[in-house]
């Protein structure tokens, strides 16, 4: 069963467009609750009447979030569910609250790292994990033409953020960050209250940027997608570490004390290599995606571990981790999953786990990051009008095959459509940067040569 609306991380698009609007949000929520009924996941409410049960809703700081949250609640109510608002909280806090509160489902209204004009909706099951492709397809099959938007009472669960903070605080000893100066970029998003609270309670002196959300500035030249300001402030402040989240807090990008930015590949390699030296990496296994640099494989093999790759999308990483019994995995984008702590990507947990390694080894991050030597790599993203199958694009598909033959075992090409944006993503790795640059130029020329694929402007 194929999916029409869901991408790699929920349903996402421009607010006010054909997908992300109040009417569709209500329909999608109604469909999700209807799917729960059909799946036999009925429960009995406190009053004894059969119903779908409690469904939690969290959101980020986008101006459209309150309207979409209300629409989701109306759709849930129309299907017989009890809608409970968590307010503005990080996505991993929603995942945790679903699992610990006995809720039937979690809904997050967010477009993650996308600009403020976008928004989206994603779901978490009662185990705190993202739904499978099959589950999402079944939800789509229950989409009604319309939903009577009658509003019932929406409950609140105000302690979800504080409980999330308490779990994070327990990861390090009391006052472990005394005398640490940190720069924290919360992307004007959902972590503006939670991450600084944790770091300050652990004793750190926190310099905040991207910490003044106004509904329209989420991810605007700040956050994990734009770490340039973070690097500049780390150097200016003489900070020991810089931490950047995305808009909903499930990603982490770090900056060492010299101003060097670490992506998800470097964070994962630091964590996995240290765990291997301590014989604490479960199954000696790290799960990453096709997007990750080939240098990760080499570093983990050298440390005595094994790497398994999945298709791009943190939920595919999580599914493979679960199947193989691994507890560490993630993506180069900064989705880091430490499943013994959180069932989904958690930017704050990832940062605290790296700090734990720094404390245990006494080494600065600039030294720890040397465990990964990346293969020369270039990436690019090209806007597209439509996601035409790549194999049907003669110039691009032909160029991909030609470059793969030339690189052989010394590199690779990855061309795929984004699951959350109207973009074609290109990746080339090779033995030397001139080779990589030449291959990337050929791919871009092929994309342009295939005509209507590229969006103008």
Structural commentary:
The structure is a single chain. The chain is α/β, with parallel strands linked by helices. It folds into three domains: 11-158, Alpha-D-Glucose-1,6-Bisphosphate, Chain A, domain 3 (3-Layer(aba) Sandwich), CATH 3.40.120; 163-371, Alpha-D-Glucose-1,6-Bisphosphate, subunit A, domain 3 (Alpha-D-Glucose-1,6-Bisphosphate, Chain A, domain 3); 377-453, TATA-Binding Protein (2-Layer Sandwich). Helices cover 36% and strands 20% of the residues. The protein is built from 14 helices and 20 strands. It has helices spanning 22-38, 65-78, 91-101, 133-141, 160-169, 194-201, 228-237, 264-277, 294-302, 314-324, 347-361, 365-368, 394-407, 433-449, and strands at 11-14, 43-44, 50-51, 53-59, 81-88, 105-109, 118-124, 155-156, 181-185, 205-209, 241-244, 253-255, 261-262, 285-289, 306-310, 328-330, 336-338, 377-383, 412-417, 423-429. The strands form six sheets. A six-stranded mixed β-sheet has the order 1-7-6-4-5-8, with helices on both faces. Helix 2 links the parallel strand 4 (53-59) and strand 5. The protein is globular, with a radius of gyration of 22 Å. Residues 41-50 have low confidence and may be disordered.
* Helical content class: 25-40%
Number of strands: 20
- Characterize the biggest β-sheet: 6 strands, mixed
Which CATH C-level class of the largest domain is it?
Answer: Alpha Beta
Overall morphology: globular
CATH architecture of the largest domain: 3-Layer(aba) Sandwich
Mean pLDDT: 92
How far do the termini sit from each other? 35 Å
Low-confidence stretches: 41-50
Helix count from the secondary structure assignment: 14
Rg over CA atoms = 22 Å
* Spatial strand order of the main sheet: 1-7-6-4-5-8
Structural class: alpha/beta
The portion of residues forming beta strands comes to: 15-25%
Number of domains: 3
The CATH superfamily of the largest domain turns out to be: Alpha-D-Glucose-1,6-Bisphosphate, subunit A, domain 3
CATH level-3 fold name of the largest domain: Alpha-D-Glucose-1,6-Bisphosphate, Chain A, domain 3
